[in-house]
């Protein structure tokens, strides 16, 4: 009964003073304290026994000596069975412990008691625990959450060659995680990650020098489980191991298949998967194994079904029991050069395994291949086995096994076992190949959707980094952009689509295209994000309507517009980290930009903020993967970012390298994209502006001022076309809009002409009829300018037109 309920009851020490009967007896034998549990066991309320001698609760017919006859001395106190009298008069047998007390008021005894049944159950539990830990043939060890051994018994210490304590408490020397045996470390990690792990059979290699056929193999059954406190918190891991002697080959093979299922395909890395297969085969089944894959497999290409008569093989992995293999061994990555009559080529052509139980100089396929024959003779190879690596109907390569130290020839049982192991590995290899193919496709798609090269702009100097995450996490939806705007301004964009993979990359492409289109309309940052939010909502509706729900529907974005004339940065963000600004004369700033909701929530407003910058300041826009990469502590990430951006006068590429080095580990867990821009300013002598009266006679004056300004800039060659543009735009504003009117010329890498008015009505280009007296103004502007357009402001609109400077091509 005690054993059956031990685990379920979580029974504690019955002498725990929080649950046991407690009495305090002074040096004169008088009871000074009586607990509620004591009242439960003996029936006396505290009021009846306090102040009375302790002998009052002894059995009436027993003397104090006989009542305490079952007790014995233990160090300074005593423990054992005592006989007391219940309030009803019956005799009560209790297990008790006494401890002397010494205080200023005098000495006494603290007595703790419980019923005999609970005491014996506790003693039995302790005996079971001691026997299980120290006397049973089960190896037991306890690791903490840092995967360090804290306790091992003799059995496990002997199995693993671990240091052991004095044989009583089993205390082990502190072992670093790397010193814990790999099988123990793997199971313990699985327990800490997932809370449970399946038992595993491990084959223990027989002593060297014995035939695998005749040697008595051993199986080791391993199991691990979490150790938790009463609140459910994980305190560590208990690992157990039991050695079982393998009496027949079937059990040994079952253990090997079981082990292979756990060891092969632990990652989606192709190179690691084939190496895991080699490690399972050597030395259990072969003294040497070579795994050769077709070039298309290594390149994650599509494969044709069925056997393959031709194709380029590459050595993917090999492993040997010897560390001093001949130099003639084919290096990994090179072609093995199998002849047409070799077992490897015949195996690939037929799709069937080939077994040579006896291999010697008379073997027919070695005749004429002196190089390979010399190599096999040098190694002492006496038996040969070749198995095709096939999965899902496609042949991916071939596995070659050799024996020279193992005296047994490959037999039919070996062939069946190797075929099963290779088939298991083939599925893992194909999974890795398919994953690499999808990952490469997604990466290629995302790279094609990102700008191949950022434009050179007069307003900013830019640099960037895009670092995709590792292969296991997949490609993400990070993007960045630099978009030229009218009036010599520029838009800086960084965004992040939720999720990874090809659908995230596709969604990113749609959002980037939408941002570019809306930016071309010269919308303010907050209004632009509101339109993009509507697009993400429509994507969400499409995803719900799709049967397989393929689309990614969440994103964050920061959109900033910099004006080199006013030196102001207008920023809005949608659930994205705030930009960082490195000033020349002040510490790095993380401005308080209204956060805004992530894109795709809908119904919530976006706000923008305007920041004035000095020329030469550096603005950094980035995805959250940058500041969360190191240890998921965002505050630490921001501190490191500020440190990396210090001294903004450095070259931008050097700043990018510093950010990568300080903020990112070797293998980030999320995609990282960031864009940094050093601001430039247009000096006042490159900008000319005038107010224009709403009077038709002002058109002539506007043309004259334009001509004078062009002469001052040395741009007389643009005089005719610019005066035409000014004349038509000012005339349209006077005719169709209301004052005040403004005319501005900007001389940067192109010549920009802008006319502003207070009307919100947008002009449009149309084809005038031959009988029309007007309507050709914008048509003429479009013909003589490189590009033109309209942008709206808080006070109306601005119509602008750009012309390339003489000797300069289009931007």
What proportion of the residues form beta strands (DSSP E)? 25-35%
Unreliable stretches: 1-10, 166-171, 768-775
Q: How many DSSP-defined strands?
A: 30
The Rg value, from CA coordinates, equals 42 Å
Identify the strand order in the major beta sheet: 2-1-6-5-4-3
Main sheet summary: 6 strands, antiparallel
Structural class given helices, strands, pairing?
A: alpha+beta
Task: Determine the number of helices (DSSP H or I, runs of at least 4 residues).
Answer: 21
Q: What's the average pLDDT?
A: 82
Distance between the termini: 89 Å
| Overall geometry | flat
Helicity level, as a percent range? 25-40%
List the helices and strands and how they pair.
Elements: H1 2-9, E1 21-26, E2 31-34, H2 36-42, H3 46-49, H4 64-67, E3 70-74, E4 77-85, E5 91-103, E6 106-115, H5 116-135, E7 139-144, E8 149-152, H6 154-160, H7 182-194, E9 200-204, E10 218-228, E11 234-245, H8 249-263, H9 270-281, E12 288-294, H10 295-298, E13 313-320, H11 343-350, E14 354-356, H12 370-379, E15 383-391, E16 394-403, H13 412-449, E17 460-467, E18 476-484, E19 490-500, H14 502-520, H15 525-545, E20 555-563, E21 568-574, E22 580-582, E23 608-612, E24 618-622, H16 624-627, H17 634-645, H18 652-663, E25 672-679, E26 687-692, H19 698-713, H20 719-736, E27 741-747, E28 750-757, H21 777-784, E29 787-793, E30 796-804
Antiparallel strand pairs: 1-2, 1-6, 3-4, 4-5, 5-6, 7-8, 7-11, 9-10, 10-11, 12-13, 12-16, 14-15, 15-16, 17-25, 18-19, 19-20, 20-21, 21-23, 22-24, 24-25, 26-27, 27-28, 28-30, 29-30
Helix pairs in contact: 8-13, 9-13, 13-14, 14-15, 17-18, 19-20, 20-21
């Amino acid at each position: 009964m005690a054993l059956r309920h031990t685990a379920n009851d979580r029974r504690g020490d019955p002498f725990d003073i929080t649950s046991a009967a407690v009495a305090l007896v002074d040096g004169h034998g008088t009871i000074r304290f009586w607990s509620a549990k004591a009242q439960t066991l003996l029936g006396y309320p505290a009021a009846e026994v306090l102040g009375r001698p302790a002998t009052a609760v002894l059995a009436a017919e027993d003397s104090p000596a006989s009542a305490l006859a079952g007790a014995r001395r233990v160090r300074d106190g005593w423990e054992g069975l005592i006989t007391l009298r219940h309030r009803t008069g019956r005799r009560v047998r209790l297990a008790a412990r006494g401890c002397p007390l010494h205080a200023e008021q005098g000495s006494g005894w603290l007595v703790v008691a419980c019923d005999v049944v609970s005491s014996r159950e506790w003693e039995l539990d302790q005996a079971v625990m001691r026997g299980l830990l120290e006397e049973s043939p089960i190896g037991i060890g306890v690791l903490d959450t840092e995967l360090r051994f804290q306790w091992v018994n003799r059995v496990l210490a002997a199995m693993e060659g671990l240091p052991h304590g004095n044989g009583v408490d089993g205390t082990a020397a502190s072992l670093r995680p790397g010193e814990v045996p790999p099988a123990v470390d793997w199971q313990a990690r699985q327990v800490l990650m997932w809370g449970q792990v399946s038992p595993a059979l491990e084959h223990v290699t027989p002593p060297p020098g014995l035939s695998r056929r005749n040697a008595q193999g051993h199986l080791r059954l391993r199991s691990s489980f979490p150790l938790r406190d009463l609140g459910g918190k994980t305190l560590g891991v208990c690992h157990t191991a039991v050695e079982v002697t393998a009496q027949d080959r079937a059990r040994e093979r079952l253990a090997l298949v079981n082990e292979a299922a756990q060891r092969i395909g632990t990652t989606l890395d192709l190179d690691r998967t084939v190496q895991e297969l080699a490690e399972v085969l050597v030395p259990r089944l072969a003294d040497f194994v070579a795994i050769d894959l077709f070039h298309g497999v290594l390149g994650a290409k599509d494969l044709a079904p069925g056997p393959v008569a031709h194709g380029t093989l590459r050595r993917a992995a090999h492993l040997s029991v010897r560390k001093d293999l001949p130099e003639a061994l084919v290096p990994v990555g090179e072609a093995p050069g199998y002849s047409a009559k070799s077992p490897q080529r015949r195996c690939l052509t037929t799709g069937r395994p080939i077994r040579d139980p006896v291999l010697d100089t008379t073997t027919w396929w070695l005749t004429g291949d002196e190089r390979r024959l010399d190599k096999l003779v040098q190694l002492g190879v006496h038996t040969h086995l070749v198995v095709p690596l096939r999965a899902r109907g496609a042949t991916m390569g071939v596995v070659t096994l050799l024996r020279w130290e193992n005296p047994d020839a490959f037999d039919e049982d070996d062939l069946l076992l190797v075929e099963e192991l290779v088939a298991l590995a083939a599925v893992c290899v194909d999974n890795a190949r398919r994953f690499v193919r999808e990952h490469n496709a997604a990466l290629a798609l995302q790279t094609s959707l990102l700008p191949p090269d950022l434009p050179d702009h007069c307003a900013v100097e830019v640099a960037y980094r895009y670092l995709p995450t590792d292969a296991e996490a997949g490609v993400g939806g990070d993007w960045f952009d630099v978009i030229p705007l009218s009036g010599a301004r520029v838009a800086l964009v960084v965004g992040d689509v939720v999720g990874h993979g090809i659908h995230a990359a596709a969604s990113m492409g749609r959002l980037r295209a939408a941002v570019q289109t809306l930016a071309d309309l010269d919308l303010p940052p907050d209004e632009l994000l509101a339109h993009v939010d509507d697009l993400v909502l429509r994507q969400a509706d499409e995803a719900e309507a799709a049967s397989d729900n393929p689309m990614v529907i969440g994103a964050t974005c920061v959109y900033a517009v910099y004006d080199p004339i006013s030196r102001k940065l207008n920023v809005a963000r949608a659930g994205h980290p705030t930009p960082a600004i490195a000033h020349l004369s002040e510490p790095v700033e993380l401005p308080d930009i209204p956060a805004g909701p992530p894109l795709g929530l809908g119904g919530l407003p976006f706000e923008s903020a305007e920041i004035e910058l000095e020329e030469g300041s550096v603005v950094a826009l980035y995805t959250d993967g940058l500041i969360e990469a190191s240890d998921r502590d965002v505050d630490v990430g921001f501190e490191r970012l500020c440190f990396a951006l210090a001294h903004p006068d450095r070259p931008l590429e050097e700043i990018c390298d510093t950010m990568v080095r300080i903020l990112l580990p070797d293998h980030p867990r999320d995609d990282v994209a960031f864009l940094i821009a050093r601001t430039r300013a247009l000096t006042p002598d490159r900008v000319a502006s005038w107010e224009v009266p709403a009077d038709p006679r002002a058109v002539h004056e506007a043309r004259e001022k334009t001509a004078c300004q062009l002469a001052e800039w040395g741009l007389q060659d643009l005089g005719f076309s610019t005066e035409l543009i000014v004349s038509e735009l000012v005339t349209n504003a006077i005719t169709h809009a209301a004052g005040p009117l403004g005319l501005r010329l900007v001389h940067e890498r192109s010549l920009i002409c802008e006319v502003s008015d207070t009307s919100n009505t947008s002009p449009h280009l149309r084809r005038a009829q031959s009988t029309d007296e007007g309507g050709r103004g914008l048509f003429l502007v479009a013909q003589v300018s490189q590009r033109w357009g309209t942008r709206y402001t808080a006070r109306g609109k601005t119509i602008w037109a750009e012309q390339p400077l003489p000797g300069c091509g289009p931007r």
